Amino acid sequence: MYRIEEFPEVWVDACLRSSEGRLMFLSAYGRDGSLMQLMAALDLGGAERGGADRFHLVNSQGARHPVDVNGTSRLNKHTGRLPKQNLFGPLSHMWLFDKTLQQEDKANRIAWVLQHAEVPAVEPSLATGNSLPALNHGVMSDRVWQTLVRLSPVALLEHWREPVMQWCLDKGAIDALNDPVYPALGPVSAIRVSLSDHYLTFISDSVRSGLLRA
Q1: Sheet of 110-116: strands edge to edge?
Q2: Is the pTM of this model over 0.85?
Q3: What average pLDDT does the structure give for the chain?
Q4: Which of 42, 77, 100 is the last residue of a domain?
Q5: Could you tell me if 80 and 24 lie in one domain?
Q6: Quick one: 12 and 25 in the same domain?
Q7: Model confidence at 136, in pLDDT bands (50, 70, 90)?
Q8: Residue 44 sits in the same domain as residue 17
Q9: Which domain does 89 fall in, by range?
């Protein structure tokens, strides 16, 4: 668990940030008043007294991880209560996440795939792009492929999966949200699937060359 340095009564078990350090996903716990105080400060922003546009997550070793918010208009929020029979008393669970994580942008061919990291996934291969066997197995890789199939403006055959996903990895069309400067914190992972016109050229050229066969 990570505590929020500026809001010490709020604890976090998972956080995702963009390569610029911007908040993409946060899973936080606290009493209702503490979570409301956090949201009120983020809504105000850094320019207002009592507001905040950045906070720091601190782990048990004291390492600090900055998280930039810069406005909450792009964020959605869900909350729930923990069962009363717990060791810490009445606590609520709050999820904050960028709205783009929820819906596929079919017009621009962009979508996100989120997964609890305890489920078999493909983060090592996605981070390095050099471990194709790991990419082709597991719940996460199946969901990435299914997302790619939905986004693709041309129909994809199942036996094209290996070369198509390998090309997407090599070109960054499939990319894990796990920047070295702003790594994923806690048991959560996210993968961005984005298909440009270069993808269409690759499919067309690969069919003509015989790399992708009917």
Answers
A1: 110-116, 188-194, 174-176
A2: no
A3: 87
A4: 100
A5: yes
A6: yes
A7: very low
A8: yes
A9: 2-100
